[in-house]
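Problem: given the chain below (525 residues), write out its structure.
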Amino acid sequence: MGHPFVKDRTESTRLATPWVPGQVESKLKVRYAVSLLIAVCLSMTAIVIGEGWNARQYHLRGSEVEMSNLAQTLASQAQASIKQADTLLFAVVDRLENDGMEPAKIPRLQRLLHAQRGELAQIHGLFVFDEEGRWLANSNNAVLANANNSDREYFIYHRDHPDRGPHIGPSIRSRSTGEWVMTVSRRINHADGRFAGVVAASIYLNHFLDLYNSIDMGSNGVVNLIADDATIVVRRPFNEADIGTSVAKGPLFTQLLPKGNSGTAIVKSYVDGVERVVGFRRVEGYPLIVFAALDKAEVLASWRQESMLSAGIVSLLLGFLGVLGYRLIRVMKQQNHIQNELLEAQEKLIEVNHSLKLLALEDALTGLSNRRQFDLFILAEMGRARRTHTSLALLMIDVDHFKSFNDHYGHLAGDECLRKISTIITDNIQRPGDLAARFGGEEFTVVLPGTDYVGAFLVAEKIRRAVQQTDIKHSGSPEGLVTVSLGVCAYNQTAQSQPEDLIGAADKALYVAKASGRNMSVIAN
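Solution.
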């Protein structure tokens, strides 16, 4: 924006020879100059007011973007923390349901829970309760006489609900240590499907609070982790009285969440009545919402200071138009500098979010693509094959007798075995367009675009022979070494409309391979 300057030039007349028309002309020039000055001042005032309003909107919008990015980052962090705990619970449930819960096995289970807890700093404890709520094992080696957790919300939930998914309970005080924790739990079943107990992980609330407190949210900013039932799980700033408080009648649940799973707004807090700039996002895969908010008054504090400065400059314009340009340029430079800093901060947050998304598509153990990446890739490739009428093939790979391998050699050896097999798979698919992924547990999958069932069978056999030739010893296998079975399926556009159809066909072929003696590749009919 340019800055207008006014130059007033008046002609003086000789006092000795008064000339009325000349005096009138001079007065008119003065009036014109005054009018021009007033017009310039009014224009500058209008411009400054308009820029002040735009700066106000810019500050608010910038804060909304910051809160949206912060909510997304914190939601990813919460999802990762809970997912780590839930993965441990899934493994413990699988172990208990397969190996049993006899008293002779409890000491080993207790040692396992203690070792697993030590791997994750956010875990307060891992606990196993029988169908009556009695303590069977815990990672903290806590001994509580007649301890019983049948009155806990998560125990009652699993006892009354047959679903096998994870359950996020309300924040509670630990009976063993007295600390505030959030619970993640899973149901244990008997072989006939009856309720057999609960395995639970407690996560320190301080794990979340330490992160939230490390973020500069101003003196009156808040970060909330809220359950789907509208109760507060943890809130920064921390106040024990806030835990469990319902915000169902607050704007988050009445206005914002009905419109979408994420977003930004300027609303008045239901808890303390403060108007804030908020960003919110649901935690993927779990019934939680992250809610981050800055005090609107604090967001606009710098804007008010800038506006007062501009007002002072405008008042000086009446007598110091020459200084105005310099001051306004300085203000604009300050605003540009602030804008650049905000944009740089935004770009850094976007880069961090992008990195988190990339990490979310890779299997941590093997380095292959994970199930999520596989689902996205197979859906895209089926669409491409359908449009271009090209071929597409899928391999399903399962490690033979892997459970007995784990039981005999231990989980660390099992993990190393999976890493070796993943390397073999990667070495035997050379095209850039192919994808190898860990499907789950000891099961892998390979997507081969532009390949029919013959080519896919040749790749499958290369992988099978390479695994066999690696000579990984396995005393529990009839072969005496680790082998794999493979199911091969080519995409049929008529019979397979969804990825599940193609996966199901390859899985059936894999089942036939295992039922027929293992260590072989079978093509789907």
